[in-house]
Amino acid sequence: MTPTDILVIGGGIVGQVTAIELAQAGARITVVDAGINAGSTANAGSLHVQMQSRFMRLYPDQVPNIEASLPLYCQAVEEWRRLDAAYGPFELVRKGGLMLAEDATQLAFLEKKAAREAKKGVSVEILDRPALERIVPWLGPQIIGAELCRNEGKVNPLAANTRLRAVADALGVRFEQDHIRTLSAGNRIVAIGDRDTYPADRVVVAAAWGAGALVQGLGVAIPSVAEPLHMNITEASSARIEHLVQHAERSITLKQFKTGQIVIGGGWSAQHRGALRVPAVAPSSLLGNVSLAAKLVPAIGHMRIIRTWAGMNTTIDGASVIGPLPANDRVVMAVPGDAGYTLGPLVAKLAASCLLGQPDHGVIDRYTPARFAV
Amino acid sequence: MSRDSFHFDGNPIEFRDGQSVAAALTDAGQLALRRTAKGDPRGMFCGMGVCQECLVTIDGVPNRRACMTAAAKGLKIVPQIAFPVLEDMPAAQKPDPARILEPDVAIIGGGAGGLSAAIAARQAGASVIVLDERKVAGGQYYKQSASHPPLDAQQREGAALLKRAQESGADVLGSVEIWGAFDGPLFLADSEGAALIVRPKTAIIATGAYERPCMVPGWTLPGVMTTGAAQTLWRSYLTLPGKRIAICGSGPLNAQVALELAEGGADVAMVAEAARAPWRVPWHAFAALMADPGLVIKGLGMMRDLHRRGISLRHQTTLSRVDADGESLRATFKTASDEEIAETVDALCINSGFEPQNEILRLLGAKMTYDPAFGHLRCDRDTKMETSVRNIFAVGDCAGLGGAPAARVEGLIAGRVAAARAGFGDAHDLFSHQRRLARHRRFQASLWKMHDISPRTPDKAARDTIVCRCEEITLGDILDGLETSPGHVGTLKRATRVGMGRCQGRYCGPVATRLVAQTTGKPVDDFSNFAPRVPIKPVSIASILAAQEALDDPD
Question: What residues does the FAD dependent oxidoreductase domain cover (chain A) (predicted)?
């Protein structure tokens, strides 16, 4: 194979942006991707900032890490704005996100959460029903208030993925379809795939939930876990829902693309069928997820769901993993801790800065893979 | 006699009892029903609820299919709005309570195969429900009417089969659209806004096929419809698609519908058949004669009748483009000698073969094998019609094109075996069924060799040919996408939006899959197509909510 300075494992949002950053600096880059089950190609484009109630409920032990990462999320949305300006448009909208409350307990939870988030520099506000009605008149009558997070927004991931791929292509980045099984570290780093082997001077691991397994022989035990999640999309209606809508207690994200389709998701589970098959949609998730959306936004009742799918989210310990391995600095990790699509471009940029010899220690030291050294 | 009427775009439209909205509008000469997001006019295309082109807004509710909605007095209908306004829609009404059905045998599709299966399973003693999309079951071959008596022997045969199925004690439910199929099996359906949840012991999938179009510039114009759509208009609603008509593609349905429409009073300008004339392929004709002399004689009779009526049947003639010509359509054809001929018509019917409706089978994980001659997947089945998934059977065209007579026999076999699996009868000695089935299959094999339904891709020179009707994606868009995203049709879909629309890739999918195969050099197989997804057809959020509430109910 042709010489590669840097091999990027994983061709999702992280891998693509890493490749672009490095290729712009003059490196010869090869991206190798399995071509299946990438989180980015199934992603629905929410730009998350505020702590997701779903995550707090499911992974209470990871909440401190998430909370500490809040500035990173704010910065990540800014990074999306930079990318959108440079390579877009990706239909980026940043009207904020609403986390809805249906009773006093939920609203009290949001108030406490908002106070914690404000301390970390997130732009949040608690809205009562009349204030909500002024900006979102289509909510169900049971909603008594919400937390508004002004940093949040959405992009169209299909547009972003396609355009970023074109940018990478134009920079001469090579793309290979293969499933990398192991990394071996000798004079060069060699990635061994099902079809071929890929020697490189240095390697970026941008393989999301597959990252842990790839580097397990290299002195770290990174507990990356695949979390197959369910998504739904409707046919188009006129664009009225500008916010990213979530709930204080229940799993949901609801938003509308500029093209009019409403995307409903938010963490309902799908059935994992192994690394090489896409996850299967579970009827209970489809019914539960869509029904909840219908209750929160009754106006969408006549719209039809035209497609559902499942994609992989990645969880680790609530925080991202960025930077060189403690035992081998030629292998650099680039794995967002949660909300991988939101964090993706920023994590990519931070990882690329390590490879370019200008690591931003002030930010990345908190996310070093050294915390998983064995 | 004064007739009832509804309003379309402010104008009163009269309709006959039992007509669909689309049929009444066609009678009124209203072929264009909506404009796309890009402003192109569209009308009814498939006539069977698949293509999602005939969408209109009815009493404020957007995206209703005119072909599947019964006309009713006083309806206020307007052309579909590409981007309906949420606040303008009426509040979603509380639907009828959901029903949960748990029969021994559930049969999906009430056509030739499904009804036959129902009779066989009932005779064995099993409880049977048949779920059919149309108001009146019978399927696309028997096309029944809600209002008028049978027009001919084929419709009479269908009426008799439906009556036998109903009298057998099978519960034949119409207007049921299955939108979800899951392991179990579990089927989720919508029945006129109410949810239906079906958890059978065994299931027989008999969902038939839909038509393969001729993809040429202009095939999306209102007035261009599938041959089956025109046949449904006539057989089910006594509506002619237009006064002057041309029919093209390949296969026996085209000639048959030409005669039916001519008998109904249409002026059929031409039947263009892509294949060579049967006398040029005498060995296939002879093989067909050996397999089923009766059907061959029927076919020869059709050719004689076309001749008698002065309808020109042109072999080796294919559609090259369609253009709007005032209120009419100008269809241009290429003949065997590469000559261009054109016809000006009100409606153009196209059928270049069939695509199996195998969505449920694929969702349930039934194994498929690509049939390169027909250009579609065939479901792997044993001799008892069972798929690779235990207790899931497949009969008729949904398992691969095979024709109605074969579907009936397959239904008889599957009905008995499925009933036995549920504990009724022993399904012993299927020998005579198997022998009849072999004969029908021999006939079908030679029949299709006399036609030209080989899988095609559009002429690459005509880059502006629309391939994906829903998302308005052209051949040029797809060829550009193949330059950067050639790996799989799923990648191409995300890069170009091909197949992302309401029909869920039913028309563009097979073509995009073939283009990917041509580009990558990888042969088409079970996994080359778009991944199967629920919902099988678009389903309203209100209907999903109703299903959820029924399943949540502790009672």
Answer: 5-352
The residue of chain A with its CA nearest to that of B181 is A283
- Do B540 and A301 make contact, defined as CB atoms within 8 angstroms? yes
Cβ neighbours, 10 Å, residue A329: 12
Q: Where are the domains of chain A?
A: 6-41+158-224+317-372, 92-153+226-315
Give me the total of CB pairs closer than 8 Å, taking one residue from chain A and one from chain B: 130
A138/B91 Cβ within 8 A? no
Residue B83 is nearest to which of A166, A237, A302, comparing CB atoms? Answer: A237
Beta-bridged to residue B373, according to DSSP, are none
Q: Minimal CA–CA distance to A316: which of A331, A332, A300, A333?
A: A333
CATH of the domain at B63: 3.10.20.440
Check B504 against A307: CB less than 8 A apart: yes
Question: Average pLDDT, stretch B451-474?
Answer: 93
Nearest one of B198, B185, B206 to B395, comparing CA atoms: B206
A24 touching chain B per CB within 8 A: no
Written as six digits, the tokens of A83 are: 């990318």
Would you call B124 helix, strand, or coil by DSSP?
coil
Shortest CA gap A200–chain B (Å): 24
Q: What is the pLDDT confidence band of residue B554, given thresholds at 50, 70 and 90?
A: low
Q: Which domain holds residue B491?
A: 466-520
Q: What is the pLDDT of residues B44-57, one digit of tens each?
A: 999 999 999 999 99
- B347 and B373 inside one domain: no
pTM of the model: 0.94
CATH architecture group of domain A92-153+226-315: 2-Layer Sandwich (3.30)
Mean pLDDT, chain B, rounded, equals 94
Per-residue model confidence as pLDDT tens digits over B79-97: 998 899 888 888 877 777 8
Sign of CA dihedral B272, B274, B276, B278: negative
| Residue B375 covered by a domain | yes
CB B140 within 8 A of CB B236: no
Residue type, A263: V
Strands B392-394 and B539-540: unpaired
